[in-house]
Amino acid sequence: MAQKFELTFFGDALVKFPRYLRVHSTFESAHDCARSVLASLENRGAHPGIIYGPGCGRDGVTVS
């Protein structure tokens, strides 16, 4: 069974996020996608990306 990593963003629901792939097959893919989305946001620090999946712990890994 393939490992899956889920990318979500924490923050205000009123912020318009660009479309992004939510489920990734590798951690690196999810991390790169999070960095790309964050680069396009005006207030990056307020909306960190969180990756959930194998090896990411109960609270996931934060990407800011």
Quick overview of this protein structure:
The protein contains one helix and four strands.
- Give the proportion of residues in helices: 10-25%
Shape: globular
Protein structure class: alpha+beta
The description of the largest β-sheet is:
4 strands, antiparallel
Mean pLDDT: 88
Q: What Rg is obtained from the alpha carbons, in whole angstroms? A: 11 Å
Count all strands and give the number.
4
Quickly count the helices.
Answer: 1
Cα(first) to Cα(last) distance is: 30 Å
Low-confidence stretches: none
Order of helices and strands: EEHEE
Strand order of the largest sheet: 2-1-3-4
- The proportion of strand residues reads 15-25%
Topology:
Layout: E1 5-9, E2 23-24, H1 27-40, E3 49-52, E4 61-63
Antiparallel strand pairs: 1-2, 1-3, 3-4
Protein described:
This protein is of the alpha+beta class and 64 residues long. The protein has 1 helix and 4 strands. It has one helix at 27-40, and strands spanning 5-9, 23-24, 49-52, 61-63. The longest helix has 14 residues, at 27-40. It is globular. The relative contact order is 0.29.
